[in-house]
């Protein structure tokens, strides 16, 4: 099977291979307005929204690139000579990836709310996102054990 070498795929592979840097940089961008405000620099609402959009946009595009290219393809391209296998891509279902993505988005929004709006509300949002992820992931695992891929156990 011939590998797809389109420009978009190569860019996605590069972005996914530097995913930790991209996520850290995105988080730094999201928290930059609060840091600037604490240093005495006035940050307008429009600028604050722009920072948030760019930071979250970078993280979302990185996550989508990681899903599209496949983590195993990225990890194996970093190792010499190892090629990804089809079986490696089946470790996590689309549902599991969606749950993790939604929980991560909830944590990011909660951190933003805690830093910019209200600390208590942000902490509650982060807690809720983590509980959602844990509940949904566990329920999916219970469904897998009972032979149901979707996690619906007939309740």
TrEMBL record:
Keyword Membrane listed: yes
Chain segments annotated as transmembrane: 20-43, 49-69, 98-115, 121-137
Lineage: Archaea, Methanobacteriati, Methanobacteriota, Stenosarchaea group, Halobacteria
Keyword field: Membrane, Transmembrane, Transmembrane helix
Protein name stated in the entry: Uncharacterized protein
Species: Halospeciosus flavus
């Amino acid at each position: 099977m011939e590998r797809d070498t389109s420009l978009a795929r190569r860019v996605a592979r590069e972005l996914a291979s530097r995913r930790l840097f991209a996520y850290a940089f995105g988080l730094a961008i999201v928290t930059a307005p609060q840091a600037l405000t604490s240093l005495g620099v006035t940050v307008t609402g429009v600028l604050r929204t722009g920072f948030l959009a760019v930071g979250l946009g970078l993280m979302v595009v990185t996550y989508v690139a990681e899903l599209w290219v496949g983590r195993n393809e990225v990890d194996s391209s970093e190792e010499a000579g190892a090629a990804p296998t089809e079986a490696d891509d089946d470790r996590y279902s689309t549902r599991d990836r969606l749950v993790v993505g939604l929980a991560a988005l909830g944590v990011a929004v909660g951190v933003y709310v805690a830093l910019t709006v209200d600390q208590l509300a942000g902490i509650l949002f982060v807690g809720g996102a983590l509980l959602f992820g844990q509940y949904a992931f566990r329920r999916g695992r219970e469904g897998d054990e009972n032979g149901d891929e979707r996690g619906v156990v007939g309740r």
